[in-house]
UniProtKB/TrEMBL annotation:
InterPro entries: NAD(P)-bd_dom_sf, Sc_DH/Rdtase_CS, SDR_fam. This is Putative oxidoreductase. Residues 1-22 form the signal peptide. It is an enzyme of class 1 (oxidoreductase). It comes from Pseudomonas fluorescens. GO terms for cellular component: membrane. Keywords: Oxidoreductase, Signal. PANTHER family: DEHYDROGENASE/REDUCTASE SDR FAMILY MEMBER 7B, DEHYDROGENASE_REDUCTASE SDR FAMILY MEMBER 7B. Belongs to the short-chain dehydrogenases/reductases (SDR) family. It holds the Pfam family adh_short. Its EC number is 1.-.-.-. The lineage of its organism: Bacteria, Pseudomonadati, Pseudomonadota, Gammaproteobacteria, Pseudomonadales. GO terms for molecular function: oxidoreductase activity. NCBIfam families: PRK07102.1.
Length: 246
């Protein structure tokens, strides 16, 4: 029975992952801001076969609350086999361009809060000398595009942090997996004009994430074709890239 901590547990991708782990009787510690949604998620997982589910309300941007959450988690689970960090927001790029405070708030939502959690959790897993840290970043972090560079720079920070953390924790037997989804059909992307052929469902992402953890994948593009798309975008010369509306 796997012991699983999920931060941002009410997000679409996290929920889809949890349902797969519940079928294997996983034991969960779920963290999110919305108490009502947490309870709904908990009830659903128990019906699906979860061994035990504990919920904890926390705003991930409240850095001081992280250590309290982890202490409660360890009191409950004793150890952590898998930690999935899945919280985040999709900012309004245009609004951020006009408001530095909003930009920094969004960077905290998607960047610094994740890095703070990873720092705390990495130390715990280094002591355990086992476990997996799986972190949802984004293909947006691979290059700063004018349409979403506030979001992208936060995800780039997370991806680079994970790369260094992966090398550090490898020596302790701890896996770090950076998850880079492309366009996913979730409440966060609802209403956006996305190319239908490139949009995937949370359940498809979850299957890849669960399999990636089992196979100890370091960087997971979801779907896989995004690795090729971003390879092309990263390779565009700057004089051409800055003229494109990406």
């Amino acid at each position: 029975m796997k012991k699983i901590l999920i931060v941002g547990a009410t997000s679409a991708i996290a929920g889809a992952c949890a349902r797969l782990w519940a079928a294997d009787e996983g034991e969960f510690f779920l963290v999110a801001r919305d108490a009502q949604k947490l309870q709904q998620t908990s009830a659903d997982l128990l019906v699906r076969g979860a061994g035990e589910v504990t919920t904890h309300v926390m705003d991930a941007t409240d850095i001081a609350a992280h250590s309290v959450m982890l202490e409660y988690c360890l009191d409950t689970l004793q150890s952590i086999d898998i930690c999935l960090i899945a919280h985040g927001t999709l900012p309004d790029q245009s609004a951020c361009e006009q408001n530095a405070d909003l930009t920094l708030t969004e960077f905290a939502n998607n960047g610094t809060s994740v890095i703070a959690l990873l720092t705390l959790l990495a130390n715990q897993m280094a002591v355990q000398r086992s476990g997996t840290l799986a972190v949802i970043s984004s293909v947006a972090g691979d290059r700063g595009r004018p349409s979403n560079y506030v979001y992208g720079c936060a995800k780039a920070a997370v991806s680079t942090f994970c790369e260094g953390l992966r090398a550090r924790l490898f020596k302790s037997g701890v896996q770090v997996m950076t998850i880079k989804p492309g366009f996913v059909d979730t409440p966060m992307t609802q209403g956006l004009a996305l190319p239908a052929l490139l949009v995937t469902q949370p359940e498809a992402v979850a299957r890849r994430v669960v399999a990636g953890i089992e196979h100890k994948v370091s960087v997971l593009y979801v779907p896989g074709f995004w690795a090729w798309i971003m390879w092309v975008i990263r390779g565009l010369p700057q004089p051409l890239f800055k003229r494109l509306n990406l």
